[in-house]
Amino acid sequence: MTLVALRPRVRQTTAPTALVALGVFAAVRGAGVLVVAAGSWWAGRDPVRVLGASWDSVWYLGIAAHGYGRTQMWASGSVQSDYAFFPLYPALVRLAGGTALAGLAVSWTAAAVAAVGVYRVGERLLGTPRGGVLLVGLWAALPHSVVLTLGYTEALLAALAAWALDCLLRGRWAGAAALAVLAGLTRPTGIAVAAAVTAAAVRELAVRDRRAPAVWAAGLLAPAGWAAYVLAVGVRRHDPFGYFTVQRQWGSRFDFGAGALGSVEKVLTGGHTPLATTVTVAVLAAAGLLAGALLLERAPLPLLAYTGTLLLITFGGAGFFESKPRFLLPAFPLLLPLAAVMARARPRTAVAVTACLAGLSYGYGVYLLLVARIPP
């Protein structure tokens, strides 16, 4: 198998094989949860609070319990508003009970759904069930994959994105558009799913049928969720650019990568930097190389549009440099070239590589949650 296989193939995903992929994901990430739990107990901390009620999880739980309207003002003069957080995840947490355990239940369920969706995309594009399973295994073993088991939104976005891409590859425009709307209500980078749907719709209309109403509707509807929340924040704050003002107050803005380049320079010139900063530079470099491989192998347009938008937002945004690998967690198509290479290797080799990556991921996950003093 070569990377030339990165083209849609008409195959039927069988339930048992998809369950194998789900089992691989559950085994890799379940072991990671146990490692974090053991580390938390050793450090005298509650594992549920570490996983489900720390950093951004606190904001989501607050929105689930009380709605929007909380503003945190710091002595430094910075102002942080909960309007920076999109509404779908806290709404689901509220429906599930509003507690930290409810948040974890939503995240873990979303992660499981995402794993099956990632498998379906990988199996279709790589041409074999084994390729899809390996893609899921690699995704579960990423350095920051511990975030998939936190009370965060990355697992939910990954689930919506994976199934939206699967719909696009199978020509299911209504499903892709609906999932894109939900992705746009999940987090700021959810606009990447809308970009995939809109790009695919434009190409479909230009190359095949300009009068296809379902394609027109999908392309126009896809950004509606993201746009609706941004407009709603503007109305609540009596400022049409209110959402972007909120993000700037948090320190998030688009600076075309200037801030990221500064952090990279510090690492490369030997400046004193935390481990998380060094790992972030390595992850971003790997992401860039994998994006080049995906482009050279002419991956389907929806995957390129989706992944490219995530990369643009992540590389070009300022603020929270060490969180950038987390922002790229839903960019699972970047792993397709690696999965294709591993599918050619002996099964024992593929298992050993995945196990080694998972072990490193466990150690780094404990570091992020229990040692580092920065948001994961």
Describe the structure.
The structure is a single chain. α7 (154-169) packs antiparallel against α8 (173-184), α8 (173-184) runs parallel beside α11 (224-236) and α9 (191-207) runs antiparallel to α10. The protein has helices at 15-42, 47-52, 56-66, 88-96, 100-126, 129-140, 154-169, 173-184, 191-207, 213-221, 224-236, 242-249, 258-268, 275-296, 301-316, 324-327, 336-344, 347-371; strands at 71-73, 79-81, 253-254, 317-318. The protein is globular. The protein has one domain. The longest helix has 28 residues, at 15-42. With 376 residues, the chain is an all-alpha fold. A hairpin with a 5-residue loop joins β1 and β2. The mean pLDDT is 93. The chain has a two-stranded antiparallel sheet. The chain has a two-stranded antiparallel ribbon with strand order 3-4.
